[in-house]
Amino acid sequence: MAKFNASAKGKNTTVNRSNYPAYLMQEKERLVTAVLTTMFGEPKFYGSTDNDIVQLAVKCAKEDPAFLCKLACYARNVGNMRSISHVLTAVIAREAHEYTRRTVRNVVVRPDDMTEIMSCYLAMYGKPFPNALKREMASVIQRFDEYQLAKYKGSTKTLKLVDILRITHPVPQSKEQEALFRKLLDDTLETPYTWETELSAKGNTKEVWEELIASGQVGYMALLRNLRNIVKSGADVTPVLATLSDPEQVKKSRQLPFRFFSAYRMLQQEDLMTPDIHQTLESALVTSISNMETIPGRTLIAVDTSGSMNSPVSAKSTVMCCDIGTLLGAMASRLCEDATVCYFDAASRWGGAKEGYRIAHYGKYDSILDICDQNCIAGGGTDLSLPMKFALEDDETRRLKPFDRVIYFSDNECNSNWGGLYQTVQGAVDQYRRKYNSHFWVHGVDLQGYGTQQFCGSRFNLMAGWSETVLPFILLAEKGIGSLVQAIEEYPIGE
């Protein structure tokens, strides 16, 4: 994404949140990295990026509203980041009315997207709602049928779906729709047949789950998140596993990879894992990268396992930033022709290793889930120079063909550096290029979006996100034909 052409010194330098030397990002890059790594309103190890996102989004809405619209749509539909897309939509409704229609039509996927966006706008700006926002909400509510409106009507929420109807005054397009809106107003919508309503009415039992599964009314996400409950109930999981492993269903579901690992870990912890379940979850992860191009040559995959990576993605989640890093790192290693994986932190817990890193080599058929389960350890300081130290000093590496690239999975909050030998890790990269491979690439996958980097100059590609969709940008950048910002700039949003 980022190809910094500025000097490694001077105005391009700054300090990160650890008060350690780092490089500035361009504003679009700061915004993209923060947006694609943020569940808005949730804490982060080095402090929230919420205010930064809003400030950058407001500025972008005034200077390049088309880009902000595309970013909101990309975040919702490609990055699978829901809450942050609602925030960006609210900013657009306030600051860039002309893009409200295209943003709303792309971001509203479910009826509760409407109530979330309107609630977000109220929290950020208060009343009144902009006319453009009301007009588009009146339009998109007409997409949904009775089942969808009943399922997401939000009876216990402060802002309900019926409130959207009263605020926006949609004009029914038919007699049937007029009757439907009247039922929403009168609260007489037919109670939807969902797993929530059935479990609430009948209990979390084997019979209820088997009936729900047979009905085909339980969505992919619900099956994945309830896999532990289904197993514990004693229900037959065979049809569930068939759905979860179906390649078409996997792609259609657009689940973030860590959702599969979260299900895996919960089952492991309760001793509920079986070979069939393991294979199903593994298959789903492999399917998500099955059509990606092989990354040729030698690749060093650097996974940050420092203490700051022990930050959960949300207050209610057990998934840590280090889980995402190890998972994406394992998926990337599966794509590589020849991969060496380096897990690193400045005060290593890897069996007392003095180097601060541990090196691993995985085969094409090693389990991604097992790799993550064994390596999701976070502790010590963040020293991004450790993988480069290995690349420069390891005797075995010297006897082999030099690395063609390094791929970092990190929050980039470097707070130590090879005994102070270099101001930033860029110094070690420059040394490697001089000594071994002048065409060596650095790819940085930012997992927290704090707004600074440790690298600059040519052959540096900055990416961000918690989805496997970042991985194709490795080869696109090296071929000079694509980057993450470019993909967002080219994202179709309609007329």
Note down, in words, how this protein is organized.
By secondary structure, this protein is of the alpha/beta class. 49% of the residues lie in helices and 10% in strands. It has 25 helices and 9 strands. α2 packs across α4, α5 runs parallel beside α7 and α7 packs across α9. It is globular and about 75 Å long.
Give a short overview.
The protein has helices spanning 27-35, 50-63, 65-77, 82-95, 100-107, 111-125, 131-140, 146-151, 161-168, 175-186, 195-202, 206-215, 220-225, 227-233, 238-245, 247-253, 257-269, 275-289, 321-335, 368-375, 386-393, 395-399, 426-435, 473-479, 484-489, and strands at residues 13-15, 21-24, 295-304, 336-344, 357-360, 405-410, 441-446, 452-453, 460-464. By secondary structure, it is an alpha/beta fold.
- Extract low-pLDDT stretches: 1-10
Residues in β-strands, percent: 5-15%
Number of helices: 25
The N- to C-terminal Cα distance equals 26 Å
Under CATH, the homologous superfamily of the largest domain reads: von Willebrand factor, type A domain
The mean pLDDT is: 90
Main structural class:
alpha/beta
Shape: globular
- The CATH architecture designation of the largest domain is 3-Layer(aba) Sandwich
Q: Can you count the beta strands?
A: 9
- CATH topology description of the largest domain: Rossmann fold
How are the secondary structure elements laid out?
Elements: E1 13-15, E2 21-24, H1 27-35, H2 50-63, H3 65-77, H4 82-95, H5 100-107, H6 111-125, H7 131-140, H8 146-151, H9 161-168, H10 175-186, H11 195-202, H12 206-215, H13 220-225, H14 227-233, H15 238-245, H16 247-253, H17 257-269, H18 275-289, E3 295-304, H19 321-335, E4 336-344, E5 357-360, H20 368-375, H21 386-393, H22 395-399, E6 405-410, H23 426-435, E7 441-446, E8 452-453, E9 460-464, H24 473-479, H25 484-489
Parallel strand pairs: 3-4, 3-6, 6-7, 7-9
Antiparallel strand pairs: 1-2, 2-8, 4-5
Helix pairs in contact: 1-2, 2-3, 2-4, 3-4, 3-5, 4-5, 4-6, 5-7, 7-9, 15-18, 17-18, 19-20, 21-23
